[in-house]
Amino acid sequence: MPSTVGVQSEVTRAEAEERPLISIKEVSKSFGGVHALRDVAFSIRAGVVHGLVGANGAGKSTLIKCLAGIEHPDSGKIIVDGVAVQIAAPSDASALGLAFIHQEMSLIPGWSVLRNMLLGQDPPTRLGLIDWRPARVRARAVAERLGMKFGLNISVDDLGPADQWLVLIGRALMRDARMIAMDEPTASLSSEEAGRLHTIIRELAASGTAVIFVSHRLDEVSALCEDVTVFKDGQVVDRRVGESVPKAELVRAIVGRDLEIAEHGQEPAEHGSPILVVNDARDGSRVHGVSLVVHSGEVLGIGGLVGAGRTELAGLIYGARPRLGGSVVLDGKEVRFKEPADAVRAGIGLVPEERRSESLFLERSIDFNINVSSLGSLRHSRFWPFLRMRESRRRARRLADAVTVKARDVADPVGSLSGGNQQKVAIARWLVERPRLLILDEPSRGVDVGARAEVHRVVRELASQGTGVLAISSDSEELVGLCDRVIVMAEGRVTGELVGREITEDRILSLSFEHGDERKTNDDVRCA
Ligand SMILES: Nc1ncnc2c1ncn2[C@@H]1O[C@H](COP(=O)(O)OP(=O)(O)OP(=O)(O)O)[C@@H](O)[C@H]1O
Ligand SMILES: [Mg+2]
User: What is the Å distance from ligand 2's center to 438 Cα?
Assistant: First the structure.
């Protein structure tokens, strides 16, 4: 028997569903031959966190860009507060109280927190200048609401990714947003930081703001979202209103079948000789004496919180950061790379964390991006470039398929792919010429649940052919599914090592919070 309160809340909910904040009606959008959205229809309610999920390229970001006035639907209607609206430009969306944090949007480096929060606001004085005093007062109020623990005057360069996200949310709140859409806000956050963001999102919803939340982390969608819409190939294939959907059901709706999620690592297979030996590497700031070995055929994971020094450690190995001490030995030879290109020449494959700025040529084709590491080797052919064209295109197609890149044609620019599909291209490149060592920094960031399994399979296959793999990931589920061995770092030091079946999410997490002790780092870590 439902209580009176229960009945009342049911009534309120029914009313709210009848009067949604935003209704999307039969919205379609094509890019050339690609139907990014086909007759998409669903509603967004005030005060509710609404999850948008679906495979890479399913149309989530395109839908959000249509609401933001960045893309324009070919047909269909967008209704806000019962009135059909034209959102021709971002300023129209802003005037309607809709705020956005896009998938690849970033802060202006070098600018202060305050200036970044004010970005895009209409200049409030007649001279077109920002009147700093009231702006600062408002920003302070927003900062307090979000629990920002840093000053408004510091440069955003000095903030970690979770705090940078807070600044982006702060920017949205500066405009009195009635709805905030967040496209994969937690992709680059550790689980602890993501938890902080969840609390803020819940509070935003409780205060009446509608939140659109896009994520490939399905456990958080399950825990956080009251309404969920599932996209597949540009269409809505499932809609849930007022219920939390278990993760396994979300997986089934997205992938079309159940996926097994490993609870612990596998017994490691026999490995070959050491490929990479790092001894006591340090940079004087973020990495304080780390030693590790990667063997031929082995996938070694590095876990830990964002900011633990993992990316910096990788940078010390491949020459992106100056190393102050320790040694790096590749295939028995001590190396010191001046820049990443030297490391690539020496047989190291790199998939950096910031794939868009550091590894992909967005205006160039998928074909070019996949073949770029091997253009030199093809040049030896007598029939180059004719052979190169045909051969490389065929090869690109095969490799793009192997990692399930969703694209119309390999001649299309990488910039036209969805975020997750760009990441797959960055990985496919290294399947062309098997590197001796492959360094992956957050390999499945933004990659959907089905494709992630494919990416892992492909990486393991490379390893089985003798490549040593070093995989950094903040996602402990990924480390469990991918690695033979995992070391965990905290505060620039190694806090422990897990092998085979010892690798579980819980153990990775608890090691992430331990203090990196210098003595332990160099003596206790099993290297052989
Ligand atoms: N500007 C564009 N030009 C051409 N095609 C595009 C463009 N923007 C998106 N697309 C295509 O539209 C489809 C939907 O892309 P969208 O970015 O919306 O996917 P998504 O669901 O956000 O994926 P992800 O999870 O990888 O971010 C994809 O096939 C993509 O390649
Ligand atoms: Mg997207």
Answer: 26
